[in-house]
Design the sequence.
């Protein structure tokens, strides 16, 4: 046992400790494979569930199926996994921002099962966000097993997310760009290399098990100047739809939180509402890949009014599914809504200017998809590369860039934070590397505390105090009760300067009389952002740190700045 | 009183016993209780290299309107100013983050309302995870409040046991209570344990602070546990071995916690005691 034990402790394997970059690359392959596998499992599970339930869709009570799926999903998450509803991406970004990418192991499979129940039963949601949190949790768990540091763990969380997206869409570049743009928020070679490798590993696993399929094959499009002009209008429409979808999702979530009843019942209500919509418009069910494929191929034969109604219905169905407690992401619904929008837009233009000579409606469906994704995620590169990769061609790259960029910019105007980041920004928890908030959050009061202050008792006379001043290089002195050690107040050198030059006062003044008791204090667990704000507000340069009525030391702006610069250098090097 | 003990308050008679135990511990070792009155049934603890989700049962949310008053009353009766903890950060809206910078944490044997689980012989999985990951010792109180008058450290020669011994010496020094050491000699010789102590630089402290080092060279470990004073705080290391070894040979900590009724202070592999 004694000889075997060192081999069991993976974190001590010398092979991997030779070079940090090599270590990350090797582990990125492992993370990529597991994340890719998780995506394939989810994909296949959803397909199987849809297959099982399809014969039941002919029954009059089929509208209950999405409700049952959402309820089961909510019960599973709440009672078995003890996790909250939602897609989980903010949780990943929060872990990356504040806790060095630490994620619970259970997250590596919980969302896969719950989203399978929601989407497989007909809920309007996508499997991508669950795959992101699952891959990220796999990366975090593996990083813990190898006892990696925070920075390496964060990179592996990105690797997991990238591999998940790459695998599910068979799109390695989109996965890589998504992880860096949305999850990590930091474009550095240190991150990009392992993330790229994980993306390749994830894609390869997907290709090995499912074949090298392109999600949305299409025929060649001929793009003219008029299409590029039209794409500007489409971008505006995409931004409007993205804002509408974001606000609908938020409205439904708010409505749900104010409703009575257990969470599973609310999820069931949302699911049943989707089921009722699907009685008239079955295209709103599930992730919506099938109708999207038809639209891209230009074979969606229904008229403009019907397409527009389906567009609104899909937005409502997605908001009802996710807002009321179903499990899943917004990626796939965005693709479906985007393609419906593109189609509607193209048909409306053709109706208005029949002789304009626009490209085929499949092209506009693609552009709509990019516009919606870019707008919702406020991540233009992800939108561009995803559409390029999942359609297997660069024909539409120019209008694609225009739509993505304009849609992102416009959405940012109405919704300053993307759908994924909104909650974090609202709570002040979006801490991107190298930003002021992140640097301060990575430091603690106890790291910058100065402990070389000399405490004095309240009954000390000024004469004795002058001797203390002569040996101290500080301008402030805490006053403590010698019996209990309680912090009573502070003496600032500036406050007693008038007495210092009057020897008559030396025996007349005691510290308890002249100490300052109305002082702002800091607790050891206070956030440095709050401490600095307090200092600015009160125009202070230093403050005493007090815990449970005990003086621990002083915190000053000068020391804080010094430590801040060092931390910033570490984060940006 | 600059050390803190994190206590999750349960507003029930059982929770009262646990809080009384925490208060007594704090008064004895010169710490103060940091009381958390949960508003949700789960929270996360982010440790250095691990994250633990602690799932509480619904009894932790009993009568929230009286919980704070009840807790404050108990603490004030002991002459301590109550300090309440309010989470600042949330991983999700119903999932607060609890910091891990405390010096001690109090956990019942199981974070559960089932009395058979709170009794002897069972330590809940979440409590295990907390002990395994925590950089602080975990106080597992006896089911009913009982004052302790001495300290008994279980010393088996492992790195965790050395940490436990260091902690025991610190507590002995802080409280002035008798410090006893309990060692089941087993297959090794007494010299081995003495050498471990000498190698750890604890020889002088052991001579100075340890009143009685009980070394059992015969008898079964479980039977010898009868010699542990009923009113002693038991300090021991846990999870120093891997899962495989514990699975095959069993764990000493499991045996102790399922046999003695004393309050226990458990030192996990991530706690580093300094003299």
Sequence:
């Amino acid at each position: 046992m004694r000889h075997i034990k060192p081999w069991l402790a993976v974190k001590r394997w010398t092979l991997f400790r030779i070079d940090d970059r090599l270590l990350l690359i090797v582990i990125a392959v492992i993370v990529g494979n597991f994340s890719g596998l998780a995506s394939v499992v989810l994909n296949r599970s959803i397909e199987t569930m849809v297959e099982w339930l399809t014969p039941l869709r002919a029954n009059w009570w089929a509208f209950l199926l999405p409700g049952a799926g959402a309820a089961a999903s909510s019960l599973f998450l709440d009672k078995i996994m003890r996790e909250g509803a939602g897609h989980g991406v903010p949780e990943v970004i929060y872990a990356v921002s504040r806790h060095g990418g630490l994620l619970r192991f259970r997250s590596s499979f919980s969302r896969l099962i719950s989203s399978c129940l929601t989407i497989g039963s007909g809920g309007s949601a996508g499997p991508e966000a669950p795959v992101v949190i699952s891959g990220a949790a796999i990366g975090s768990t593996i990083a813990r097993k190898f006892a990696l540091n925070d920075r390496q763990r964060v990179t592996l969380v990105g690797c997991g997310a990238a591999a998940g997206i790459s695998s599910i869409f068979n799109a390695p570049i989109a996965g890589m760009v998504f992880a860096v743009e949305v999850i990590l928020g930091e474009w550095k070679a240190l991150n990009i290399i392992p993330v790229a490798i994980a993306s390749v590993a994830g894609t390869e696993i997907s290709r090995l098990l499912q074949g090298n399929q392109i999600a949305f094959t299409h025929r060649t499009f001929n793009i003219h100047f008029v299409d590029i002009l039209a794409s500007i209008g489409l971008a505006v429409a995409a931004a409007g739809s993205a804002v509408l979808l974001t606000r609908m999702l938020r409205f439904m979530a708010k409505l749900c939180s104010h409703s009575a009843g257990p969470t599973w019942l609310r999820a069931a209500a949302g699911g049943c509402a989707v089921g009722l919509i699907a009685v008239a418009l079955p295209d709103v069910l599930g992730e919506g890949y099938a109708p999207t494929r038809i639209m891209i191929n230009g074979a969606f034969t229904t008229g403009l009014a019907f397409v527009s109604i389906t567009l609104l219905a899909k937005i409502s169905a997605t908001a009802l599914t996710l807002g009321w407690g179903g499990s899943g992401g917004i990626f796939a619904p965005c693709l479906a809504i985007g393609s419906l929008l593109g189609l509607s837009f193209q048909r409306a233009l053709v109706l208005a200017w029949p002789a304009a000579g626009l490209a085929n409606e499949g092209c506009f469906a693609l552009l709509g998809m990019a516009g919606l994704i870019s707008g919702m995620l406020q991540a233009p590169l992800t939108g561009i590369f995803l559409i390029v990769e999942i359609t297997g061609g660069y024909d539409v790259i120019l209008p694609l860039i225009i739509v993505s960029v304009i849609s992102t910019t416009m959405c940012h105007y109405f919704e300053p934070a993307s759908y994924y980041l909104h909650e974090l920004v609202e709570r002040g928890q979006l801490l991107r590397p190298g930003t002021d908030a992140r640097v301060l959050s990575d430091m603690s009061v106890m790291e910058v505390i100065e402990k070389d202050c000399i405490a004095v008792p309240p009954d000390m006379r000024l004469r004795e105090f002058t001797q203390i001043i002569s040996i101290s290089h500080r301008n402030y002195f805490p006053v403590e009760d010698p019996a209990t050690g309680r912090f009573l107040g502070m003496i600032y050198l500036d406050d007693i300067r008038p007495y210092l030059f009057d020897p008559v006062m030396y025996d007349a003044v005691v510290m308890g009389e002249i100490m300052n008791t109305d002082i702002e204090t800091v607790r050891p667990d206070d956030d440095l952002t709050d401490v600095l704000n307090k200092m600015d507000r009160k125009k202070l340069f230093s403050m005493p740190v007090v815990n449970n009525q005990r003086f621990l030391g002083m915190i000053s702006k000068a020391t804080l700045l010094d430590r801040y610069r060092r931390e910033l250098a570490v984060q940006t090097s | 009183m600059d050390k803190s003990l994190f206590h999750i308050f349960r507003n029930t008679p059982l929770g009262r016993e646990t809080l009384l135990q925490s208060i007594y511990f704090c008064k004895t070792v010169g710490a103060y209780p940091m009381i958390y009155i949960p508003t949700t049934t789960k929270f996360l603890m982010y440790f250095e290299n691990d994250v633990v989700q602690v799932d509480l049962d619904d009894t932790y949310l009993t009568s929230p309107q009286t919980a704070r008053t009840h807790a404050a009353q108990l603490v004030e009766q002991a002459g301590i100013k109550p300090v309440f903890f309010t989470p600042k950060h949330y991983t999700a809206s119903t999932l607060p983050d609890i910091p891990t910078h405390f010096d001690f944490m109090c956990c019942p044997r199981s974070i559960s309302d089932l009395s058979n689980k709170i009794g002897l012989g069972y330590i809940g999985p979440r409590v295990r995870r907390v002990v395994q990951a925590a950089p602080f010792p975990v106080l597992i109180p006896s089911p009913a409040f009982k004052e302790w008058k001495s300290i008994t450290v279980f010393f088996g020669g492992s790195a965790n046991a050395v940490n436990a011994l260091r902690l025991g010496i610190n507590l002995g020094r802080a409280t002035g209570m008798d410090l006893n050491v309990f060692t089941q000699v087993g297959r090794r010789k007494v010299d081995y344990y003495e050498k471990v102590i000498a190698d750890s630089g604890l020889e002088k402290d052991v001579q100075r602070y340890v009143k009685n080092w009980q070394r059992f060279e015969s008898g079964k470990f479980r039977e010898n546990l009868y010699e542990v004073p009923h009113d002693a705080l038991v300090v021991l290391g846990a999870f120093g071995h891997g899962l495989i070894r514990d699975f095959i040979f069993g764990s000493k900590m499991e045996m102790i916690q399922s046999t003695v009724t004393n309050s226990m202070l458990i030192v996990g592999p991530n706690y580093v005691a300094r003299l």
